[in-house]
Design goal:
By secondary structure, the protein is α+β, with helices and mostly antiparallel strands. It contains 3 helices and 5 strands, in the order E-E-H-H-E-H-E-E. Strand 1 (about 1-5) and strand 2 (about 10) form a beta hairpin.
Length: about 100
Amino acid sequence: MQTCSRCNTSSPDPVTECPNCKADLRQLSVNAVALRKFIENPRVTAIRINVAGDACPLCYESRGTFEKTTVPRLPHEGCSHQYGCGCTYEPVLNEIYP
């Protein structure tokens, strides 16, 4: 499942347009917005993909830390979990305090 960052509506992974507010989920899902912010933040040196304990094999294999330029997009195309891709992004910081 993916969540729209504008109206907080949940949609199945293959959906590209929010059924409620018509936002483009490829750009405005919660994960897409988080990824964009992490990439733009100079304190973020890498991006980690976290997976749920009951993740499908595809998602489980994608867990790990990636350079900003090589991080896979979420939700994973081909995720076979019954509720959809539950992966999330997490920043790896080079400094915590300014």
